[in-house]
Amino acid sequence: MKNIRIAFFGTAGLSKSVLEALYNEKYNISLVITKPDKIRGRGKKLLPTSVKQFALEHNIPVVALEKVNPDFIDLLKEYRIDISLVVAFGQILPAEVIDYPQYGSLNLHASLLPQLRGASPIQSAILFGLKRTGITLQKMKFKMDAGDILAQEEIAILENWGAEDLLKVVIETSPTFVIKKIPLYLEGKLTPIPQDDSKATYCYSLKKSDGLIDWNTDAVRIVRKILAFNTWPVCYTYLKGNILRLFKATVYSNLSKEIDMLKPGEIFDVDKKIGILVKVKGGAVAIQELQLQNKKRMNFIDFVNGYRNIRGIILGK
Fold first, then answer.
1. What domains sit in the chain, N to C, each tagged with a CATH number?
2. Could you tell me the pTM of the whole model?
3. 233 Cβ partners below 8 Å, 6+ apart?
4. pLDDT digits (tens, 9 = 90+) for 267-290
5. N or C: which end of the chain has fewer CB within 10 A?
């Protein structure tokens, strides 16, 4: 079964971990499809995706496409592809491309489908306050994340986890999961289970502007947003006109009556055990990890040691 010819679609992170596992297990990865090189980092260099880099380093044929069109099927025919595997590729493939391989096209999705269909399941699991999520192997159809379910594995979401924490576990879990399930699928030992569309929930592509914090929002929603977006797009506010990025926070409940006198976004204290305290609608949050414009990411203790006299500053201005 390892001789079947695989087309692998992916970009970075999760995709690369699964691709590497397939390669290490001696699967016949005949073609890798990824996205074009992008300008990245402070050096503003044009760099390939980690999936493309891995393919090049291991002499696997690779193409980088802004969009996969129906005529891409000609390339699948040229490489005599038997099955496609799509992992965090970020595009909806044409029906012709999905249906062409003999064994169809499989997708690894980072949720327990039909929950969180769409482009941001990891961030959304945190944003919605879920206690559990997981990964799903589905047989793709030309409808977003609506394919028959082949296998699932549950992941518990621990208290105070952010997207970084959940993504780490998904990346650790997925390669072994895929390696175990693909042979079972090819041998006909996985029974495809149609999804119940009535139970579907959805999540959407995130934009950089989605990270802007409105301090006139309640503490729970703000904290969930900061934790959910700490991989991308990363929450931000303004500190005296400079962008201040926020990565970790928690709800602060040890409040005095004077809290009602403060303005939303006002820094009113620093609790050395919990964080920089900021007034929000109906309460307060403690900022724990942050990054000022043109500075490195740091914990709140290091931040206040370098940026003194922050009490009374109103964030967002």
1. 5-203 (3.40.50.170), 208-306 (3.10.25.10)
2. 0.96
3. 206, 207, 208, 209, 210, 211
4. 999 999 999 999 999 999 999 999
5. C
